[in-house]
Amino acid sequence: MTTQADTMEKIVALCRRRGFIFGSSEIYGGIGGFWDYGPLGTELKRNIKEAWWNDMVRNPPVGPNGTEFQMVGVDCSIIMNPKVWEASGHVGGFSDPMVACRAEGCKRLFRDDKVFLVGFIPVGDDPQREEAFEEIQQLREQDPTKARALARQAELNDPPVYLAVEADSEESAKIEISYDSLSNTQKRRITPPFQHVAYPLSRKPSGWGPPPCPACGTRGSLTEPRQFNLMLQTHIGALQDVASLAYLRPETAQGIFANFKNVIDTSRVKLPLGIAQIGKAFRNEINPRNYTFRSREFEQYEIEFFCHPSEAPMWYEFWRDVRHKWYVDLGLQSEKLRLREHEGDELAHYAKSCADVEYDFPFGLSELEGIANRTDFDLKAHIEKSGKDLSYFDDQRKERYVPYVIEPSGGVDRSVLAFITEAYTVDENRASPELMMFHPRLSPIKAAVFPLVAKDGLPEIAEPIYREVKKRFPCQYDAKQSIGKRYARMDEAGTPFCFTIDGQTKEDGTVTVRDRNDASQIRIDKSRCVEYLHDKLSL
Ligand code: ATP
After folding, report:
1. 7 burial class (0-12, 13-18, 19+ CB within 10 angstroms)?
2. Residue 199 phi, psi (nearest 5)
3. Quick check: CB of 250 below 6 Å from ligand 1?
4. Closest ligand 1 atom number to CA of residue 283
5. Is the pLDDT of residue 204 over 90?
6. What's the per-residue H, E or C state across 302-321?
7. How confident is the model at residue 539 (pLDDT cuts 50, 70, 90)?
8. Is 526 near ligand 1, meaning CB less than 6 Å away?
9. Which residues pair with 79 in a beta bridge?
10. What are the start-end ranges of the H helices in 160-252?
């Protein structure tokens, strides 16, 4: 049986083997939380960013009730005046709760809210057993000896078998620790039927005893949580003192807020207005995990959409739905995508509403992007800290106000991983059973040109076709190995079409076009290759 963990391992192996993603500085043993994109990954990532820029900035969808609005871009520096991060609240509050394992030889650090206890609670449809279980829960604190005796009598394990794991949600924790993943000794301690449960560390059920370390398993070795600031620091200039301290930006958003007035004053734009940015962000994550999903250096695509406060709820709903649809249109199956509205107690203190676009990765449903109504929190914070007037005069409403902001904030690398996961397909009937079914807009290579054999005058016909196609589309030429192997390589790269020049080309001027999706082949005139791609890829 192929498990989700197996699937992830296979995806990681294919990405390494075919040059999508490498570990950073691998020749020196790598560095945790940093990744490099190889030739195919670089093209894929560029295509994703270009699709975003094109669909959101250059040619955004029409607003609610046909409202037109403007979108412009900025490209800000990674290091900004540290006062920006004081105003935004990052210096004081951008931290995660951290716990450490005290056990000798482990000493690992974990993010407290990402450690889950996964347990197997014996319950079933036997009312007597259920009753005994309830009684044991109540007795555990008051009379542990009696609780244990009762558990033995009812053949229930008490406390239930539970382990600790690092995960992004209760759901992912249960995927990581399933019944099948337990050792035989652990399985013997669980009397079926059982209930499979997961609790965050902070909500450990009473009576479960000290939590084990997710890495070494030592019980009671975890410290109490303490706050850990996620901003990466550096120093500017020759002296390394407090005055030269600076931060690598933990998000691209603040560059947009800091330039709001510059854009308004120089660009003949009016509200509602979106300012977009794609760029690197850095977070000193306590434990980077799940391949590139949680990295310490990553790219974000963010929009700060400025509008009149009364229209913010309307624009929030608009952007939430636009961003969800964008992922579906680019090929993420809608049943694997979830749009999840945050509950009141989950909302950040500055946000009025917030939704996450989540994708069902092999390691569980996890956030791709957050869309939030950030109100006027950021602009007001910068007005106060900088003393500059960042309000806006609306000449249609004849009103001066501090705009509200809707922020769709996505992670490029998480999108790359989601599109790779979605594209990864296994078809045992093919010469190479693994292929990448990318949406054609995202495919790193759009076409390949192959002479069937590297002789008999076929390369002489194939090379001019290749030169013509590559002027318009990323294209590869390959004359070596068997044709089956060459198709298989292109399937693994996710290339939608391959043109093959064979003996018949010399007779009637036609070439075969092979379609990656179903491996079907048709013949077209060799002069029509570019036109064919143009029609099929509708780029
Ligand atoms: P998480 O809860 O997963 O740590 P977050 O809610 O803190 O994420 P935001 O601050 O909302 O994330 O950042 C916006 C987007 O940036 C996220 O939706 C995600 O796609 C991306 N992102 C954030 N942190 C990372 C990271 N460590 N590695 C890769 N992408 C990230």
Report:
1. middle
2. -130, 140
3. no
4. 27
5. no
6. EEEEEECHHHHHHHHHHHHH
7. low
8. no
9. 248
10. 170-176, 184-188
Residue 121 confidence (pLDDT) above 90: no
Confidence at residue 319, expressed as pLDDT on a 0 to 100 scale: 98
Residue 157 confidence class, pLDDT cut points 50, 70, 90:
low
Q: Name which residue sits closest to atom 3 of ligand 1, judged by CA.
A: 367
What is the pLDDT at residue 537?
87
pLDDT confidence band for 159 (50 / 70 / 90)? low
What is the overall mean pLDDT for the chain? 92
pLDDT tens readout for residues 467-515 = 999 999 999 999 999 999 999 999 999 999 999 999 999 999 999 999 9
Residue with the smallest CA separation from ligand 1 atom 11 is: 370
Tell me how far the alpha carbon of residue 298 lies from the centroid of ligand 1, in angstroms: 9
Whether 298 is in the pocket of ligand 1, judged by its Cβ within 6 Å, is yes
Between the CA of 82 and the centroid of ligand 1 the distance, in Å, is 21
Q: How far, in Å, is the centroid of ligand 1 from the Cα of 343?
A: 18
Q: Which two tokens stand for residue 368?
A: 């791709």
- To test the pocket of ligand 1, the residue of 414, 416, 417 to mutate (highest count of ligand atoms within 8 Å of its CB) is 414
d(CA 485, CA 497): 15
pLDDT of residue 192: 73
Better-predicted residue by pLDDT, 136 or 423: 423
Asked whether 248 and 235 are in contact (CB, 8 A), the reply is no
- Ligand 1 contact, 370 CB (< 6 A): yes
Residue 458: is its pLDDT beyond 80?
Answer: yes
* Tally of CB atoms within 10 A around 148: 15
Q: Measure 192 CA to ligand 1 centroid, in angstroms.
A: 39
Nearest residue by C-alpha to atom 23 in ligand 1: 411
Dist. CA 491–CA 121, nearest whole Å: 45
Q: Which residues of 96-134 are buried (b: 16+ CB within 10 A; e: fewer)?
A: bbbbbbebeeeebebbbebbbbbbbbbbeeeeebeebbe
The answer to whether the CB of 113 is under 6 A from ligand 1 is: no
Cβ–Cβ under 8 Å, residues 207 and 140: yes
- Residue whose CB lies within 8 A of the most ligand 1 atoms, among 21, 252, 298, for a mutation test: 298
pLDDT, average across residues 160-175 = 89
Cβ of 283 closer than 6 Å to ligand 1, yes or no, is yes
Ligand 1 contact via 285 beta carbon (within 6 Å):
yes
Residues 41-94 pLDDT 10s: 999 999 999 999 999 999 999 999 898 899 999 999 999 999 999 999 999 888
Tell me, using a 6 A CB cutoff, whether residue 532 lines ligand 1. no
| Beta-bridge mates of residue 73 | 276
Say which amino acid occupies 444: P
| Mean pLDDT (whole number) for 440-469 | 96
Percent of the chain as helix, strand, coil, to the nearest 5: 40, 30, 35
